[in-house]
Fold this protein.
Amino acid sequence: MAGNRSFTDYVASRFYNEFYSAIEEYIGEKPDNLDLKLRKVRNIGNVSLADLEVKLVSVNDLPDMRIEFDVVVEAEIEVSEGNHHYDDYDQCNQWFSLRCTGDLACSLDDFEIASISIYNQKNKMPRPMSDALVPYIRKEELETVAYDFLSRYYPETLKTPIAVEPLKLAARMGLEVKITDITEDLSIFGQVYFHDCEAELYDSDKNEMVFTPVKARTIIVDPKAYFLRNIGTVHNTIVHECVHWDKHRKAFELERLYNNSASTIKCQVVGGMKGNNRDATDWMEWQANSLAPKIQMPLAMFKTKAFELIKQFRNELGTSELIDVIEPVIDALAAFFRVSRTAAKIRMIDAGYEEAMGAFIYIDGRYVKPHRFKKGALQRNQTFSISAVDAAIQSLINQELNSLIKDGSYQYVDAHFVLNHPKYLEQDIFGQTRLTDYARTHMDECCLVFDLSVRAGCAERYHSECFLNRDETSTISFDIVYGKGYQFASQENKAKLLANELAENARIYNELPNSFTGSLKMVKDWRKVTFKELEARTMLSERTIRRIFNGEEPGGSINSVILICLGLHLPPEISNHIIDKSPFSLNNNDQSHQWYRFVLTHLYPQSMDEIRSFLQKHGADPL
């Protein structure tokens, strides 16, 4: 489609003469109704129409392909005292409103003007459409619109939880679904045809695009979608095209009024209209994307099935915690309604189960365990979970975030910045640091919040509802920034929970001498660690460690000093003091040193195995 076609421009051009004649007749029959602002003429003799301009058109959606529309015109009127052109006359403007009707199925050939009146104010249409003949649907109306769609085509889904059969839905709408190649690269996963045409489709046998006859009312789905995506996505594609047919035929017919060779709407894999980024087609795609899952999972019946499955899995797994069953419930709902996991997850949140926001998240290629938080703690475009690279960047460039974490009260664990307290962090039997069960069920108490925005992968408007699609197969990348004003682990909570630890850290820091070796000896005694234990933690030889502590030459390196600080689990301000007093320094232009500074700040309480694994994963030189 060509984009923002204007219905106003079309009717202004095509029906100008009809508007002129109607207003001219009205003026002749009802001159007393006119509200004329005259300056020269005192006694009105002759009133005539000189010109007119269409100012706006308001469209109301009617059944089938019919529409009614109010055309507001500004008319230029000449008024004279007598009937001759040499008499005194005035020119003035009068606005009129013309109520019109027509059927797009016959290209408005049955156009007629039903009534005409002096314009007072814009009439509010019960089912308004845009100037591109796209229905206005607000976000809060989507559930109602989906309900209306199902009541007309698939009413049984509103009575009991059942899956929508997309082929049956299409058949009920008079549509035929065909599975055939569309493009070589699957850049278009589906398209619906509004008129008979010769469609250009990919022929895999010939390895080229060929022209193929396609009948109107045909939905084509590329078979590669079954292999490269999943059955839930394919079903969504068919329902998506059904929505286009139901909601956007009038917008398409407007395109036909401009370009009679148009025949189809093509939908890109990423969610935008193929070959077009303009507003009208963006809105059509947003509507189809938003309505399709709501049609596949009508809210009331979805809630009924979700409640049933939650009860079932709680009994089977012997738990009362929703977070323990949220993932199997989502997968079971996806299988039942034959949708994708992501669609079922988002629908769970629509149904009020915000725990789903913490399910099926993958960061840095690793699975992040499900977590939950107080209702309303996160907005749709926010997260507790960020990658290590984003964490490193934010901690360096974001001063507000840096001020929260520089004292060591937050650790970066399992893709979260977590309050460093035994209530929230623990070590497993292998010595790996992890979130406690309490932390995973109270993320708003202990984790910092970050804002998400789409950087790449698809149009942002489409994915405003799909920020949760951060699974292992996602092609979407995000910009992530610290969510100013949403740090639920407040300074008050932090002060209360960490008062003793921070006070002790501050005491030692304030007592540190200005010498490198003196500081090392003090923190070693403070941690009550022997040279032999430090050797086991750092894998430096005991002899090397002793030489470093005694300031002997050769006295180690920046790497060995970092290892000692990490082996002693020193808070960052104490590590920084020791490094500053040492003969060595960190180079901020060295990528490995940037990661060393990150682990000194955020991972210092963790085991050396965890820290070495983290550094290796992010390409830093080994310590």
The chain has 22 helices and 20 strands. Confidence is low (pLDDT under 50) at residues 269-277, 456-476, 484-489. The CA atoms of residues 92 and 249 lie 41 Å apart. The radius of gyration is 34 Å.
